[in-house]
Amino acid sequence: RHDDLKEMLDSNKDSLKLEAMKRIVAMIARGKNASDLFPAVVKNVACKNIEVKKLVYVYLVRYAEEQQDLALLSISTFQRGLKDPNQLIRASALRVLSSIRVPIIVPIMMLAIKEAASDMSPYVRKTAAHAIPKLYSLDSDQKDQLIEVIEKLLADKTTLVAGSVVMAFEEVCPERIDLIHKNYRKLCNLLIDVEEWGQVVIINMLTRYARTQFLSPNQNESLLEESAEKAFYGSEEEDTKDAKAEAASLAKRKPYVMDPDHRLLLRNTKPLLQSRNAAVVMAVAQLYFHLAPKAEVGVIAKALVRLLRSHSEVQYVVLQNVATMSIKRRGMFEPYLKSFYIRSTDPTQIKILKLEVLTNLANETNISTILREFQVCHGHTGGTGGQPWHGSGMDKDFVATTIQAIGRCATNIGKVRDTCLNGLVQLLSNRDELVVAESVVVIKKLLQMQPAQHSEIIKHMAKLTDNIQVPMARASILWLIGEYCEHVPKIAPDVLRKMAKSFTNEEDIVKLQVINLAAKLYLTNSKQSKLLTQYVLNLAKYDQNYDIRDRARFIRQLIVPTEKSGALNKYAKKLFLAQKPAPILESSFKDRDHFQLGSLSHLLNAKAVGYQELPDWPDEAPDPSVRNVEVPEWTKCTSREKRKEKVEKPFYSDSEGESGPTESADS
């Protein structure tokens, strides 16, 4: 079949050539390899027919990088294409030229980009902006010359070029913020008319620019919050001194007035919340979150909730951002609580993110509704319904997350702690082992907050050691019994007896907790547990795992007094039975807001390659006059003066040569 395509390309008829090129481009679109046709296609780059020429350039852009030697033979033809009267051909020629990634033609590419940057057609100038990052990746030594071209293109007033040149700026010289000063207001005003992906790039760049050039609109609020915290924790004498000093500093600090350019950016991006493109809405949302005063951030909530009706990929990214925002700006999403309810059709990762958001939004007024929603989650997955649970591995993740969410709600809101604990204890009779295991781990964390009140629950959990086989859950129960053995003095030695029987068959994590339990009981109740402890330590002494052997050797020296044991033996009780702080159950999204929202780094919660840091707000505002653009002299005359001139001037000018620049401007 390729032979007849070659024949058609070699024929003298343009119609046959056009048909052949259409078939070849269709093959490429379907993912088929058409690289062996390169010599036959490249000959037609000089064809007179515009339609054939366009398709030849489409093919060449795709294969120029693979077939560099053949492409280099036709380089003079591409250079001629740069002078073609048709703007599409000029742009295509530049695109092919920048796709030939051979260092030897860097000077030719540089010259072509410079010429294209001054082209009459905005489409060609846009293509020049696209070629800049390609050349930069090929030869970074050209950076200074490329910055000159970027500076020239940034001054372009057409919407077609704006997005592409900002993208080139981000790739080549994102640190050169001085290039943006003069073009800042123009970019803000053009934003609404730029194509969608250009809008995303410009908004992200302007977010970082604004963080370096304007003062924080929430600075006074954060100062007040800090002083309130100090007043809560500090002593009374210190308070009065600090309060006076802070009052004086606040009095010296000028009342915050938003820079007009800061307001311009917020005003011009707000209409884009209605955009049909989810990426644009997300970009505006992150801009408002990072730059707007607290009172104004709320406008983005409705737009983000609207995006939750989109397909799951968009939902996933939106919920990642909402989970971060809802930690600091909880009130913003409270009216839309029902939008985050979990549907049975949602993919597991969406369900988990919705749980995260619901937990962040929980407060004393809505907690009963949220806990009911969590209970429904268990009902769907065979949780509290008591039905046998046939979930896949992913569903098990979801149930585990739901139980963790209940634990977090109980930690954050004291009045529902007992309700949550009782609910979790009920889950301990569930038929699914993983549900029980996760409940045990969460109950352990909750009991650390007030163990004295809950000795019944500890007794109930001690009975579970016969049934639960999940290592983490067994280890958690043993830790609880060991930590609070004084609350269950009759049960603890019996649990140790059972665990000593099965010691050799347990997992390593469980063995370590059995050793800990034995040590704690030896120190508090040596009469009943002395022989059991020695038996467990002897078993551990010959264990296959060296961690367990080491732990046994260390604990024997520490708790069993001998001549060699030294001074530490006196402090064994303090070491083992010291009060431990209760764990803080926090959101995994807590510290993610230092990454720019919507970026890959924010998604991964780790700095990705090429990520531009979000700068801190400056303490003092930089000079705003750097953004002032000088108006050319001939446009400065007022409209009243113009009217006078028009009246005074005769209809026919006597000497056209004498007319100044103002007259020509009027005409």
UniProtKB/TrEMBL annotation:
One of its GO terms (cellular component) is membrane coat. Keywords: Membrane, Protein transport, Transport. It is found in: Endomembrane system. Residues 615-667 are annotated as: Disordered. One of its GO terms (molecular function) is clathrin binding. It comes from the Eukaryota. Residues 638-651 have a biased composition (Basic and acidic residues). Pfam families: Adaptin_N (PF01602). One of its GO terms (biological process) is intracellular protein transport. It is a peripheral membrane protein. Residues 2-560 form the Clathrin/coatomer adaptor adaptin-like N-terminal domain. Belongs to the adaptor complexes large subunit family. This is AP-3 complex subunit beta-2. It comes from Buceros rhinoceros silvestris.
